Amino acid sequence: MYKQITSNKRKSFLLIAIFIVFVIFLGWIFGQFTGDSYGVIILALIISLVMALSSFYGGDKIALWTAGAKGPIQKNDNPYVYRLVENLCITAGLPVPKIYLIPDPAPNAFATGRDPKHASIALTTGLVERLENEELEGVIAHELSHIKNYDIRLMMIVIVLVGIVALLSNWLLRFRFLGGRRDDRDGGGQIGVILLLAGLILAIISPLIGKLIQLAVSRKREFLADADGALLTRYPEGLARALEKITAYKEPIRKANDATAHLYISNPFGAKTGKFFHKLFSTHPPAEERIKNLRGMA
């Protein structure tokens, strides 16, 4: 378990480091065309940060509303679910988050909130009805691990980086189509032509690269939450069996949407992730791989 946790943390932060280097490189390319890379990166950072902070502080309410979550429930409303969450929070040393139920037969769950003091966990009614006690405990532990690891905050940093890449790419394309610098137009020789082509190609593919890194980070945090959740319950088999039941259910969540899909413990659309491109563009690792990792923990 500890090996899995250490490995996934290291890979997550390595991906973010690569992302930051990529943003700096893209800014440098922009600077070659405009003569000012630092100012452009700072402006893109400010715009992206403002947009990300607005979703950071209000995104949890939007996610719960979008999912059709009902609550927050109190202990008397559903003692079974409330006590499971409460007991695991005591074990993890976390405050009890707000607990919501989503009236949907598809088994799934998600956690949201900027920190442990402002966190919420949402479980579908299908999840509560279909899972055994140890399985439901494994799912809740997974979601609490997302809260404990500040995954919402980490993903905000990634979203800011994605926003910077998108803005720089857009500005670079507009700048080139509007004519660029005078010395480029007057003829910069072979180097100028190569730089122009490289800049245009990079501007086109940069948003795709940024999105792929964002998805890769999301998948690594799922692996980390699996390992941390298993460590919390000391019973990896519970979460492994829960994932088998969740993925065996073929119907998607009725109110699933792309904006909140990455929050759920399993893909809410029920899409298969067996093929290479599905894996590449999925917010979640393949369930088979997660189950194998869980059963390999000792």
Question: Top keywords for this entry?
Answer:
three-stranded mixed beta sheet
Give an account of the 3D structure.
- The longest helix has 45 residues.
- The protein has 11 helices and 3 strands; from the N terminus they run αααβββαααααααα.
- Helix 2 packs across helix 6 and helix 5 crosses helix 9.
- Helix content is 68%, strand content 5%.
- A hairpin with a 5-residue loop joins strand 2 and strand 3.
- The model has no long low-confidence stretch (mean pLDDT 80).
- It has a 3-stranded mixed sheet, sandwiched between helices.
- The chain has one domain.
- The radius of gyration is 22 Å and the shape is elongated.
- It is mostly helical.
Low-confidence stretches: none
As laid out across the biggest beta sheet, the strand order is 1-3-2
Structural class: mainly alpha
| Count of individual helical segments | 11
Proportion of helical residues: 55-70%
Biggest beta sheet summary: 3 strands, mixed
> Roughly how many Å apart are the termini?
6 Å
Mean pLDDT level: 80
Beta strand %: 5-15%
Morphology: elongated
- Strand segment count: 3
Order of helices and strands: HHHEEEHHHHHHHH
Instruction: Count the domains.
Output: 1
Return Rg in Å. 22 Å
